[in-house]
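Dear U.,

For the methods section draft, I wanted the exact inputs and outputs in one place so we can describe them consistently. I've listed the two proteins in the order they'll appear in the manuscript figures. Please don't edit the token lines directly; just add comments below if something needs changing.

First protein:
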Amino acid sequence: AGGAREPSARLAAAIDALAQEHRQLQQTLQLLPLGLVRVQADGRLGAANPALARLLDIAPAALSRHDLASLLTLLMPGERLQPLLQPAPAALTVQISTRAGRPLWLAFTPLPSPARGGLLLLADLAPYRQADQQRQQALDFISHDMRAPLAAVVA
């Protein structure tokens, strides 16, 4: 009787460890600053993190009313995102913007069979563009300050 309990105890411990790993993964996804959603093979949206709703400027509860096609209407993609609406879409990485003008980086990664579907990732490019603009302003300022004394010497 004692031997039969040992596999049962090991199974219970493995189930508990798996449940704890699942909770940690869920917490990590909730804190991730990048928008992430699981797209089902039929285009329905699966699990999504709060950052996705924030990047799209919609309420988190509104995500459940969208599928991939309607989610893409919140963006200004032109024809570049049409391949995502095809059966078994390929990987895609593109810079786009929301209708409100927020610049985003979008990446779609297909999942292998049997899962199918894919993962859609959105990243906010605004902070990077702002940093690049500040860098350019600093370079312009330094360049001007370096030329001014040289102009006085030459003149």
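Second protein (the one for the lower panel):
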Amino acid sequence: VSAGVSWQGLLPAYFVEAGVKINSACYIHILNNYLLPSSSAALGPGYVFQQDGAPSHRSAETMAVLEAGGVNLLDWPANSPDLQPLDYALWSTWQTRVEHLVKQEPTGALTEERFKALIVQAGASIELQVVRDTLTSWAKRLQLCKGGQGWPLSV
């Protein structure tokens, strides 16, 4: 599952098939068919796109697609879950809501498609204020990380 977050809220979930390696070609497909159109629709022109330094995000092919699309890119280090709002807060909220919805399903009736629908429903149920509170804490997390010289945060 892939998703995005902004001051306007969460972008809907995007599903990558199980076992698919997120190489440059796959990531470019996700960018072109989900992340960039969804971000543009939600935020309008001039938004700043953040991604980490994963190899598929930083490849020459990916960077060419972003540049050709005129995307304003905020560079970000790889493996920085303490600074990724989805990682440090929102995925756990989303997961808790999915688990709650799954428990309400009849035993044995949960298909893959229904499970995906519940994931989308759970994401849509996360209130805008929860997202904004998470994003507001981001500046504090940056300062804590800077003060800790990049070591993992214990917040």
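Candidate sentences for the figure legend, describing the second protein: Strands lie at 5-6, 9-10, 48-50, 72-74. Residues 24-43 form the longest helix (20 residues).

Thanks,
Y.
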